[in-house]
Amino acid sequence: MKLLSCIHLGWTLGLLGLPAQASPVQNTTAIASGNVRERTSLNKDWKFWHSKEIPDNVVYDLRPDANDSSLVVLKPWVLPSGNDYIADASAQYERPLTEPDIDLPYVENEFDDTDWEQVHLPHDWAIKGPFYTDEDPEIGSAMGRLPVQGVGWYRRKLDVSRKDKDDLVLLEIDGAMSYPIVWVNGHLVGGWPYGYNSFQLDITPYLKPGKGNQLAIRVENPAGDSSRWYPGAGIYRNVWLTKVNPIHVAHYGTKVTTKDISTRKATVDLEVQIENKADKTQKVEVVTEVFVHGSKHGRKVAQFPRQDISLQPESKGSVSVSTTIRDPRLWGPPPTQSPDLYVAVTSLYDARGRLLDIYKTKFGIRSVEYTPDNGLLVNGERVPIQGVNQHHDLGALGAAWNKRAARRQLEILQELGVNAIRTAHNPPTPELLELTDEMGFLVLDEIFDSWAQQKTESDFHLIFNDWSEPDLRSWLRRDRNHPSVIIWSYGNEIAEQNRDAVAAEIATYLQGIVKEEDTTRPTTASMNSAWPNSSFAGVVDLISLNYQGEGLRYGPAYAHLTGNRRDPQYDAFHAAHPEKLILGSEVAWSLSSRGSFSFPVTSYQSAPVNDTSGGNSTTLEISAYELYSADAGSAPDRVFSTQDQHPFVAGGFVWAGWDYIGEPYPYYDGARSAYSGIIDLAGFKKERFYQYQARWRPDFPMAHIVPHWTWPDRVGEVTPVHVFTSGDEAELFLNGVSQGRRKKEPLTYRIRWDDVVYEPGEVYVVAYKDGTEWATHTVRTAGAPAALRLSADREAIAADGEDLLFVTVEVVDAEGIVVPQADNLIHFEVSGPAEIVATDNGFQADFTAFPSHDRKAFNGLALAIVKGVDGRKGDIVVTASSQGVEKGEVVMKTV
Ligand SMILES: *[C@@H]1O[C@H](CO)[C@@H](O)[C@H](O)[C@H]1NC(C)=O
Ligand SMILES: *[C@@H]1O[C@H](CO)[C@@H](O)[C@H](O)[C@H]1NC(C)=O
Ligand SMILES: *[C@@H]1O[C@H](CO)[C@@H](O)[C@H](O)[C@H]1NC(C)=O
Ligand SMILES: *[C@@H]1O[C@H](CO)[C@@H](O)[C@H](O)[C@H]1NC(C)=O
Ligand SMILES: *[C@@H]1O[C@H](CO)[C@@H](O)[C@H](O)[C@H]1NC(C)=O
């Protein structure tokens, strides 16, 4: 009873960039009772301990790798955490009447954790390695050869001030890998097995006023295979503590949808669910106002009608209201549209006009049409899907969420011309969708990689029966207000897809749940082997094909392969489902190591990697002429050609945008990260970057020569030169001598000079568009390594202990030309209020642990990732040195 609501709102809205005088509350005399909603980060100052074996005799549930009847199964106490997301009340779970019969010292307030490691979240215990390098690794290549297995315990004290005693205290975890279970003051509160989903627990009943409250969180990862890629390990996403009045907007309690959209006006429908956890019936007034998000003036654009609702104790109720926004700024993907956002600010008042809660919902106004013959229309404009698949890891930082690292990934993708992301194959962290909303990416939001049938021994299939409904509903409610999300996917390459009856039954069940939660977006599940006539294809709202569109093991270069083979399938699916939009949810799967080239170069437009064609299973490098693919994949050229011959296809998501940890196909025996990215694990551009840029940014003048021109062993040998350009014609010169002016032929996406004979010097290309000069590119032969040249992605970062600098090292010769095959061992140092958190070079088979300050350059480049110290401002100097060359440094600062 101490804060005037206008002051309180001024503060709260300050977070939105709204000035205090723009208080949206009409009744400025209203008094807040206690605190309105307060959400704080709980990321700092945890104690952590990890064991590779099960150290505590408990397990979420018995599994193939933990099938010992002496283990105490905690599942009965965890299942009720999903109750809010189980529609049928009779199917919800009762908490057992007794506590689990265990003695767990780690959850006790008195337990002495002083010897445990001090960590800040988000935290991934496995990323520091070391890598398992042996022939029979404990954790295999598919999962990145990193020590994810075992049990991790996190402990932290919580301070509950007396003024909060009437509030509810809610713990929110954006994701923990995996099977997180939470204890407060020794009491098991609940948990959420699927490591990629977010969940909230009401910890109020277990708290006592004062400083001594003990929070303990246990996570466990199976010892066997539980994933087809690197999952990360630990509490790898943000943790929040939210305090609310017992009468409050429920978790994920708002649902905003928009309709009748034009540039003149749009209708916004809002549903607000309110929860009463107080012990008496309450009448609540619900007031929601709409502001332009991020506007300096806090411009209010609409107000929903006020609504009253009466709520019994321990109940929830909803109000539904509509309003019209005049001259709305629509949300849409750049470069032709702009991702404008609004924010709905919902305030709850009690019968005496006292403010109870303020809840903000960001949303956008956009229309999306999903047409079978003309692809995707966003606000009436055809937007071809120029998408990429992204796994959740952040390279050398592992799975531990970092907003700057994710933003950097998206920035480089945007430079490439990407306008869409598929969250392969799991819910992203909520902040990723905030970024895609702000930056204007379209998102295919995907939840499962397996249903009831396994892909790996200990994957989601173990918990499918218990958790598919709560996982689906909570994910849908969490993500439904994001304008960037345009498609829901409830499965990727599901093993059931060809078991017709089973596939139909499960797909229909999952689809039904999605439709109950959201009817404004279509559903899909990606098919890599289902036929057009399959029941599976019949259930989904839109057809999303993995690789099949271009054909599997299709064409002469793939003729010698055995395995699942398909002709290109777009026409067949289009004919079988003439009413459904078709897209490629995974296209390409082409493979390369940045800056590596091998000879001879295949004459095919697309060929499978093998030891005599593009690959080398000894060096573990794959040629970056960008003509080589996985057996079931295609080089980009073939994807583009297929798309151009099937204009009804809405576009596709390339497998993959960035290289990621795990799935090092085809070198499972030697490598630890993927070859399929357009961008390598360190964030360096492969040659393919320029090929996609040429297609996806046709108005951006660029030309790019492949390969580099430093081949001392190739003098006199044929060394093909290929050029990627957004122009339509180009002339190539070698040491001033024209090699011919050539046009890009129809259905080809590069200009090739396959007969160039290597001599050192300079290769130069002039590209033309419509007959006029458009862009040029020059590549010169480098001499011996002479120096290290450093550059940083930014000059200054925030001194908040989270912001990051990405420092690139180039090994250059005496004239400053990058030495393309240099592999100098580089030593990094930093001075000033900062630390080097990881280094990388983008090579898929480098087993140097990521935190190492010593790293070999790979094909001339290396990367250091530097983090500032929280609260300390000053200059940062990063130095790189290597024997026999001049050292380099770069100066930045934290502000
Ligand atoms: C545990 O082992 C028994 C006996 O081999 C087997 O029948 C059962 O399916 C296993 N349980 C799990 C969860 O793997
Ligand atoms: C404003 O709040 C006061 C104090 O609670 C209350 O008496 C009054 O009815 C409210 N006015 C409106 C317009 O809501
Ligand atoms: C579906 O199509 C495939 C391939 O053409 C065919 O083998 C199969 O018999 C068809 N199934 C049904 C149920 O028609
Ligand atoms: C490698 O692929 C090529 C086609 O690009 C094929 O002709 C050759 O037989 C393959 N080699 C092996 C060893 O499979
Ligand atoms: C692979 O690379 C190694 C080392 O450079 C070389 O000796 C070998 O000939 C290469 N293999 C093929 C098939 O090119």
From TrEMBL:
Domain Glycoside hydrolase family 2 immunoglobulin-like beta-sandwich: 254-366
GO BP annotation list: carbohydrate metabolic process
Domain DUF4982: start-end pairs: 716-775
Region Disordered, residue ranges: 312-333
Pfam families: DUF4982 (PF16355), Glyco_hydro2_C5 (PF18565), Glyco_hydro_2 (PF00703), Glyco_hydro_2_C (PF02836), Glyco_hydro_2_N (PF02837)
Span of the signal peptide: 1-22
Superkingdom to which the source organism belongs: Eukaryota
Keywords: Glycosidase, Hydrolase, Signal
Chain intervals with Polar residues compositional bias: 312-325
Glycoside hydrolase family 2 catalytic domain: residues covered: 373-528
Gene3D superfamilies: Galactose-binding domain-like, Glycosidases, Immunoglobulins
Domain named Glycoside hydrolase family: residues: 788-890
Every Glycosyl hydrolases family 2 sugar binding domain range: 113-243
Keyword RNA-binding: no
Recorded GO MF terms: hydrolase activity, hydrolyzing O-glycosyl compounds
SUPFAM superfamilies found in the cross-reference section: (Trans)glycosidases, beta-Galactosidase/glucuronidase domain, Galactose-binding domain-like
PANTHER family: BETA-GALACTOSIDASE (PTHR42732), BETA-MANNOSIDASE (PTHR42732:SF1)
Family: Belongs to the glycosyl hydrolase 2 family.
Protein name: Beta-galactosidase
Species: Aspergillus mulundensis
Origin organism lineage: Eukaryota, Fungi, Dikarya, Ascomycota, Pezizomycotina
